[in-house]
């Protein structure tokens, strides 16, 4: 009979537990009834006396339930345990805390914790870890004072969980205090504590401290390498991220999907296409599958590095695409000004039943704005309520931009006044930018006044207002704005452009003569200028916002940073190779016109990434359709 019970226990354990029991008076217990399925359960056998209740049996039940994460079963086991003679068993109660945390029911875990007659380090650590794992980092850190007050000494597992929570909060002060305690208790040399400490400093943006902790680790593992790589990636330090990734390989640690995701994210930030392709090849060689987790960041990397063809290939190859995959591709279309493609992609999302969210609608509105699709943009803005998506301030900014780019400045102004949310500096800034585009000084001044009031430290609006007055020939007003800028210390950000050739980045500013090959670069631009003028290029001096004569204006146009970068690329890149140029501010309108001619005359694909979007020049035209 005992052998029969043992076999029956193993056979019935995975089945749904059928009964709930009244709680013991001294513990806060669940009382909700659980529907009984057909057949016996392990708890039925215990009640029938066919199985002897033992701590080992209860622990087996708890362990199996933790694997299935079935909250109803967890509460049934808890209720049954409370009626047994093991109701106060610290080991089993600690296991229950862990079980509830696994099921995501941290409040139930806290109920068990609070009702315990005595708590040990495992009790405290289990709850700390539970809070940290269930996105409640502040609650996890908040347990530490009580633990110390109870004179319970934290161990390595406790510190690892506390540091993880402090990092999730971005609370450097709390993290440093936990670090000091770990040193006091001699736990800082533990590899898990060390990795958590490194991750905490990295998440708080303290990469110098993170690197120092990493260097002191006697036993580095994949977790510590990944934490360091992710930290550099979050800081936008693409080159350092790549160097650390290479160091990880040299030290014999295999990259995981977390590693590749961090590296692709970092390379996306600097638009490093060649390095991105190298990491992609490394991933294929390692046998890593194209999961959505990695594919999403790889797709973003290719899109932000100026290769929409590769971005689309990655999208098509991602297995089990999730919402992020679809949104990332949609955002890429928006950044390239491919409005019609973005709309088609958005409609495909709807057709496939993808759950649309705020980011989806923001991306499609941005695409409509950049593509001049006003009718479609209005339609999608109104559609948000059909999907129970409440417009946020970014959606209003994008909608104002949509109307403003189309020249509907009065309609945009009325929209701002009728907004249910209070207009922010970003909303007025979008209107101001549109006024600069369409040279409307009246509404521009009105929008600028609101921006100055809401965000007096923003250097962009005064520059835009100056440009509006200068472009319309109102030099007295322009001088007034310039005087205000000087009085308040506002300085225009210097324009610079850079191009990467053979893994070396070459950066240029306007009228740059510091490059070793400056003379050759300038001779090349003179040749380019001569050839594109013959093809029909005429310099547009409206983009020189200085009170000087026409000849001086034309001279000023010739040596903008992006033109110098283009000349350098044509000298050094093989015939037919795509030229990719990055710029820290918006591309100049005259340079945009010149690049169209260069793409036709020199038969080159040229991709420019500025702060707003991508411009893909080919055969005399741009992907933006001159709507920017």
UniProtKB/TrEMBL annotation:
PPR repeat extents: 89-119, 120-154, 221-255, 322-356, 357-391
Q: What InterPro entries does this protein's entry cite?
A: DYW_dom, E_motif, PPR_At4g14850-like_plant, PPR_rpt, TPR-like_helical_dom_sf
Q: Which UniProt keywords apply?
A: Mitochondrion, Repeat, Transit peptide
Keyword Mitochondrion found: yes
UniProt key word Zinc: no
Q: Where is the DYW domain?
A: 536-628
* First-listed, main subcellular location of the protein, grouped into a coarse class: mitochondrion
Location relative to the cell? Mitochondrion
This entry carries the following GO cellular component terms, namely: mitochondrion
Q: PANTHER family in the record, alphabetically?
A: PENTATRICOPEPTIDE REPEAT-CONTAINING PROTEIN, SELENIUM BINDING PROTEIN
Q: What is this protein called?
A: DYW domain-containing protein
Gene source species:
Urochloa decumbens
